[in-house]
Amino acid sequence: MSKQVFVVGGNHHNILGVMRSLGEKGVNSYVIIETKDKNPYVAKSRYIKQCWIVENEPIVLEVLRAEAGKHGDKPVIIACADNLSSLLDMHYDELSQSYSLPGSKRQGRVTELMDKEVMSKFASDVGFRVPLSIATDISKCDDDISIPLPWIIKPLMSKNGLKSDIERIYTIDDWNNYKSRHATSVQVQQLIDKDFEYQLIGLSLDSGSKVLIPGISHVIRPAATTNTGFLHFENLDTRYEPIVEKCKKFLRKAGYSGLFSMEFLRGKDGNDYFMEINFRNDGNAICVTAAGVNLPYIWYMSHLKSTIDIESFRQVRPVYVMPEFADVSLIRHGQLNIFTWIKDICRTDRYMEYDKKDPKPFWLLLGDFLKKFIFHK
């Protein structure tokens, strides 16, 4: 018995990592890529069975509706972008008749929890320490924000914003400048003086009754507005057990099934702070596959077997993973020493883009990267 898989996402290494994780297990994917790019590099993967390149969410929905019932018993869906996780969630009642979906059994629940203020309150209720924050509409707000500077500003709903909308604010002048360039609802959050960032990437089954978090990723070289950076993934140790238990409580309370990641900061005060949860495959999740636990494939297999023994996936091989193009950009802008980078290449176990078994996406992306570098676009 087998099922088909639909992977939905953007022109990004996130969706590429899912296709490769499944492909390495002999499962090729039906892929819907939402992008304005007419020639997306991820569409060159060898692990694609059929591909649709579409410009917006409504067309993604049209494709899923048109393909419903054509591929045997309910195909499994994996989402690789916030807006598409929300799309599946907001049409859960309809799409769940034809597909095996991630999400909560109550339509709209996941989208509710994507609101960062709702998310922060929810996290606090299950016992996480959460930075002080408020939600505000920039077009209507004044400067009477009681949270002490510095702040980090994020779109209130990730699905409606861009990474470039995330900024650190150190002075009121910074805030006024930000407001002059944006007109949207945001979360104003206390900026924690951090020691390091880490992620728990995992899989929730049966509405949170079974949760697999096989290890922890430490972001060695974090970027200002994203968690994509050179990282080390390793086994969890007992120090993180209280955090893991709260993660499980969060997922049970949300009733969520599917791939996820949770992001945390260890403050210089020694405390761990919950930052956010992603109700989708994480862009860094290829590190878990590289470590020996193939989460997309386990999600797929959970729809073929009545039971999954998650305890059998606890041991991982420590690995280093590099987002090579992001690192080259850091070198170009003088933010990374090339000798440090070469040393890191020597200990890298997996790359976000390059894969010798699936090289075509890398070469197309490299060509685009070089064009931008040469012509400064």
From TrEMBL:
GO molecular function: ATP binding; metal ion binding
Domain ATP-grasp: 120-304
Protein name (Swiss-Prot/TrEMBL): ATP-grasp domain-containing protein
Lineage of source species: Bacteria, Pseudomonadati, Bacteroidota, Bacteroidia, Bacteroidales
Superkingdom as given in the UniProt entry: Bacteria
Signal peptide, first to last residue: none
Matches recorded under InterPro entries: ATP-grasp
Keyword annotations of the record: ATP-binding, Nucleotide-binding
Entries under PROSITE patterns matching the protein: ATP_GRASP (PS50975)
